[in-house]
Amino acid sequence: MAKILVTGASGLLGTEFCRQLINDGHTVYAVDNHSRSTTIPSCSEWYPMDLNNVDAINSLPTDFDYIYHYGAINGTTNFYNMPNKVLENNFVCDLNIFNFARRCKNLTRLVYASSSEIVADDTVTPVPEHTDVLIKNIHNARWSYRLAKITSENYLVNSDLPYMIIRYFNVYGENSKQGHFLGDQISKIRKGVFSVIGAQETRSFCHVSDATRASIFVAENCNREVVNVGNDCEISIGDAVKTIAEIMGHANAEFEQLPSMPGSVANRRPDISKLRKIMPDYAPMSFEQGIRQILS
């Protein structure tokens, strides 16, 4: 069994990684600063830690076999409300972990959580891993998160680290916080607020358990690659909100349609043919199945 470090361990993906890796019998060291969640995940060792603090990071053991780096400020609301903090924090944390990874002499894989935000505005759909990165307005606050991810991907590909870059497409789960689509919509519906932003946009939602299982498989079977992880079945934001409302007991709710946020893309669908070649049995659950599992 492997000795594994998970950063951002209290987040949506981090919590699920800890759960699955512990269940698989691995030794898991979990790190988070609890800036957005107070969850302490299933783990062997828990470290409350800010990844901006190099001394704290360097106090960790250096005999890890795998590092799953999922620590970042996330959430679309944060991209707009505090873009400079998002950009600075995320790239500094990434760089600190990349430098720490070099000290881990037995490291088999550094798994980096990238994002579909990198390929926003791409005219190709479904979007593959290797495609042009287009930015229509470099000064849009939304791109604070995106720019840090682009920079870190570039850094890894031009490094000698044994990386795997996973680009996630709209992952959701029961621990989705406000600032993300699912957390925001459930919160609004519970308050009796029936409105939806960008109802005509489409997304390909992927349940966190499917995304995590695929990521672990890819990490154990590939090296120095970029792989899309998500669900290639699209659904409109409007239909997604109606599904959530129906499962919450508001089947006949009428939703006020609000305009999209600046920079929000019209559609987002991954090409996951590469993932399916690596993992032929990959079969993510539908959005309705996932929502029923969360809200049941």
Summed up:
The protein has 10 helices and 14 strands. Helix 5 (143-157) links the parallel strand 5 (109-115) and strand 6. Helix 1 packs across helix 7 (208-221), helix 4 runs parallel beside helix 5 and helix 8 packs parallel to helix 10 (287-295).
How would you characterize the overall build of this protein?
- By secondary structure, the chain is of the alpha/beta class.
- The protein is built from ten helices and 14 strands.
- The protein has a seven-stranded parallel sheet, sandwiched between helices. Strands 12-9-14 form a three-stranded mixed sheet. It has a two-stranded parallel sheet with strand order 7-10.
- Strand 1, helix 1 (12-23) and strand 2 form a beta-alpha-beta unit.
